[in-house]
Amino acid sequence: MQYTIHTLNVLLDDLKERRISKEDAAYRISNFLFDHDFMLEIYRPETLGINPTEIKEDSDTMYVLINRPRALKCLANAIINDGFDKYDRNTAAWLNTIVTAGILASAQREKRLNDDVANGEIDRAKAERERDSIEEFNAALNKVIRVARKIVNSQAKKMAQETGLPKELCSTILYQAPEPEMISNFKIGFYTVKALMVIYKYVERVPANAREPIEDINWAPMFARLFGEKNITEACLFILLEGSNHLSNFKSPDVKRIWDSLTMFALTRLEKVPSETQHQMMDLYLKRIQRMFRNNSFDLRVDMRKLDPEKMPRLTALINDDKYDYKGKITAIVKDIVKDDKDDDDDDD
Question: What digits encode the pLDDT tens for the residues 231-260?
Answer without folding.
Answer: 999 999 999 999 888 898 899 999 999 999
